[in-house]
Amino acid sequence: MELGRLEYLQALVTEFQVTDSAEAKEQVLANLANFAYDPKNYGYLRQLQVPDLFLDMLSEDNETLVEFAMGGLCNLCLDKSNKDYILEASGVEPIINCLSSSNEETVMSAVTTLMYLTTPQSCQQTTPLPVVECMLRFSLSASRRLSNLATVFLEDYCTPLQVEEAKNLSKHTAVGIPLPKD
Amino acid sequence: MAAGGSGGGGALGEACRHHRQLAACGSRAKYREGRRPRAVKVYTINLESRYLLIQGVPALGVMKELVEQFALYGAIEEYHALDEYPSEPFTEVYLIKFQNLQCARVAKKKMDERSFFGSLLHVCYAPEFETVQETREKLQDRRKYIAKATNQRDCLLWKKIEGPRKTSSDCHYSTSGSYAASHWDPSCFPHSHRVSQNAEYPSGSHSQSPLAFPQCDNHSAETSGNFGQRTPPGGCAPPVALIQQRTVPADNGADRFMPRTTHLQERKRKREEGNKSALAGANVDSTDIMIGPQLPEIPKVDMDDDSLNTSATLIRNKLKEVAESVSCTSVEKPGSSAAKPLVKQRRRI
Asked: Which InterPro entries does the annotation name (chain A) (predicted)?
């Protein structure tokens, strides 16, 4: 049972791919997402294509899998290589889709991930108008965590012009990305 | 937490969904089982916070004791009793704000599920008490930490190659190589209109003046990047001092293993030595009249972590300093009424 770090992570990935049990899948994905918190694991996780695995899971129907995968992405996306990888693998779109999840944790992770993925080069991708508009509504949320996060997003990652534009937009259209439920 | 609709008191007055303690998972495969039973949960920076919510504190007026316990893990900036917060009968809920996240992490890890005056504490992060500015700083700190950690790879790599255990991990270290991890240039984005909001705490919680404990060692945040994860062997990067401590016995091969009993004996011997010197010191220094036996020293707790131990000693010393200055002034004030101790002394005989 003495496994090195890489072997251990490999075992997790293998179990994730092989198992038929939904429960085991959730547990293993949670494990991988928690390992993604620690920068020491980034190299191994990339080697095992775990960022891809997380991105894949975003389109699952199982809300829990989406929550864990989004958490995993939020945990590893600050690293330059991981960031570049996600941006190049067109991961931004499924992450933006997570903003409309009914699970608050998924939404929180998605907002933070978008912030962390934003660079002068990628800001076109990560802060399009619908996202800014969505953040405007999140900033009014009764959930303090979400409103704080959205406020930081608007103040630090968007230009005043963008915010102004989004405000005008939301005046005209009533529909948008819905807020997460409890 | 209804995010839409009800715009009332928000998340503060009511219990948050993420504070509900999830049932521990009993169906993990053997190789994935940890040392402690845990629920299936993913932690992100959003869930962590310098604010800790402590539930299940028996309503016995033990706030002081509670805060003292938590102060062992780092400097506390504020603490409150949350009177409005829903709680089990005969228990209270407290909010403690640490000076930095790493201290809160360790405190949570050590104090959660700990028995305290006969009741089990439930400790969880309470990010909903953060202000916008505190949330911003938390996210920035994580950014800085990752930038630092991923840059340090190079020197870690060197140490690893020198070490006995050369693994196949070299290749990807070099791919992740030496980049300036954050190319994010904040100057491209407006920061000028930042509003630092200092929200008030919910009414009904009586606030205390902040404790003036010495600063928790900042480096603890960087050195112990362990974050409650199990760390499989080989990948851990201890600080230099620890590396030296560990490698020296490792060279001796067989000497590395020390039986538990020997270990305990050694610790006992050290403690006795420490006590002896403390007693001797007190006897030599004190010119005051001794009344009754000397109070026992506060037991020194070993917290299995160098930086924790240093901050604990810092706190202890500070407490001692404060206590001494208080006793000095209280003795000086009565001044001429030196008859009192004399009376007491006679009673002792």
From this structure: ARM-like (IPR011989), ARM-type_fold (IPR016024), Armadillo (IPR000225), ARMC7 (IPR042462)
CA distance B190 to chain A (A): 6
Task: With respect to residue B149, please indicate whether it lies within any of the assigned structural domains.
Answer: yes
How many structural domains is chain B composed of? 1
Q: How far apart are alpha carbons B37 and B46 in whole angstroms?
A: 23
Residue B215 lies in a domain: yes
Residue B19: give the domain boundaries. Answer: 12-165+204-239
The length of chain A in residues reads 182
CB A120 within 8 A of CB B188: yes
Evaluate whether residue B269 is within a structural domain: no
Secondary-structure breakdown of chain B: helix, strand, coil percentages, each rounded to the nearest 5: 45, 10, 45
- The answer to whether B95 and B205 are in contact (CB under 8 A) is yes
Per the structure block, which two tokens stand in for B71?
Answer: 């102060």
For the segment B145-175, what is each residue's pLDDT rounded down to a tens digit? 999 998 854 434 444 434 444 333 333 333 3
User: In whole angstroms, what separates CA A133 from the centre of its chain?
Assistant: 18
> CATH number of the domain that B219 lies in?
3.30.70.330
Domain A5-119 adopts which CATH fold? Answer: Leucine-rich Repeat Variant (1.25.10)
Residue of A nearest to B31 (CA): A1
Q: What percent of chain A has pLDDT over 70?
A: 92
What number is the average pLDDT over the span A1-11? 80
How many CB atoms lie under 10 A from the CB of residue B118?
A: 7
* Sequence spans of domains, chain A: 5-119, 127-177
Q: How far is the C-alpha of A145 from the C-alpha of B47, rounded, in Å?
A: 9
Asked whether residue B225 is domain-assigned, the answer is: yes
B328 has a chain A CB within 8 A of its CB: no
What's the one-letter identity of residue A33?
Answer: A
CA distance to partner chain A, nearest, from residue B106 (Å): 16
Q: Specify which residues B79 forms β-bridges with.
A: B96
| Residue whose pair of structure tokens reads 């504070």 in the numeric block | B19
Least confident of A83-87, B89-93, B215-219: B215-219
Torsion on CA atoms B52, B56, B62, B65, rounded to nearest 10 = -50
Mutate to test the interface with A, among B30, B46, B50 (most CBs of A within 10 A): B46
Q: Which of A2, A15, A148 sits opposite B132 (nearest CB)?
A: A148
CA distance A159 to chain B (A): 6
The verdict on A165 touching B (C-beta cutoff 8 Å) is: no
Inter-chain CB proximity B135 and A5 less than 8 Å: no
CA distance B319 to B34: 37
